[in-house]
Amino acid sequence: MEILGTGEWRARADAHRRRVEAWIGPHLERRRRGEKHPVEDFLFTYYSHRPNRLQQWHPGAFVELVGARGHGRDYLDTERGATVDAAGLVERRRASIEWTAALLARTASRPAQFGCFGLHEWAMVYRTAEVRHAAWPMRLPADEIAAIVEARGVRCSHFDAFRFFTEAARPLNVLQPTRETQHELEQPGCLHANMDLYKWAYKLSPLVPSELVADCFELARDIRAVDMRASPYDLADLGYPPVRIETAEGRAEYAALQRDFARRAEPLRRRLLAACEGLLAVPVQPVPVQPVEV
């Protein structure tokens, strides 16, 4: 059990709140004005972790906070303060933690692939008039977008990207991912698999440190910017110059960015997997045996 003095853990909590406020504040202000941002708002709308939950600081499991008695839900009081109720939470979440650990480990075990060139976003607008970000124009006419998708094909291994493909685009994908095949298909070069590290981090909260959740959020935020820069949407007026993956130069630029994200994601995936393994080592609570009346 790591012990954090009152001043130390309060300083960490304050630093975390200041860090995430730079992301949360502008989002909440846009929401008050009824405005939408296709890049900056994505992590708050696509993922289920609300801004106030991201703002809360947790030390993670196996840490005692001195002077923090009555710290709140999912905590247990100790003689000196409080600690996350690791045993209770793991007992309730064990199946989810096991599923997440398996996904992280199997993804990390595969070689990274860098040949998709972000065409998943193009497949989401392929031969349809209904697009997710209708307030923003396309960089190319619809027939050119379709021609590029058809000429290059799509190599998307991520189910939660594939499920947003248009019906016409799905047969063009080399793979047909499903939720059931997620463990078999995800690979560490995939932008969406690396973006999802944020999802696995917050789903483990408060059992993992909030600094790790914020690190994953920061990576996901940077990935989302490139995801949309490489899309057929024209977001130059928002300050996002396009990565023109319809050209050889653009594809080379995208692959280089993809490699950098994979490099940044690797230690985060390793930290999350280590956290899962530590939590799964918590002994299973024995079930009381009820006396049998005869």
Provide a brief overview of the structure.
Helix content is 51%, strand content 5%. It comes from Actinomadura logoneensis. This is 3-methyladenine DNA glycosylase.
Fold and architecture overview:
The protein has 294 residues and is mostly helical. The protein has one domain (2-280). The chain is 51% helix and 5% strand. It has twelve helices and four strands, in the order βαααβββααααααααα. It has helices at residues 6-33, 42-45, 51-55, 86-108, 119-123, 142-152, 159-162, 182-185, 191-195, 197-204, 210-229, 248-280; strands at residues 2-4, 63-66, 75-77, 81-84. It has a four-stranded mixed sheet. α11 runs antiparallel to α12. The longest helix is centred in the last third of the chain and has 33 residues, at 248-280. The N and C termini lie far apart (45 Å).
Task: Note the main attributes of this structure.
294 residues, mainly alpha, globular, 3-methyladenine DNA glycosylase
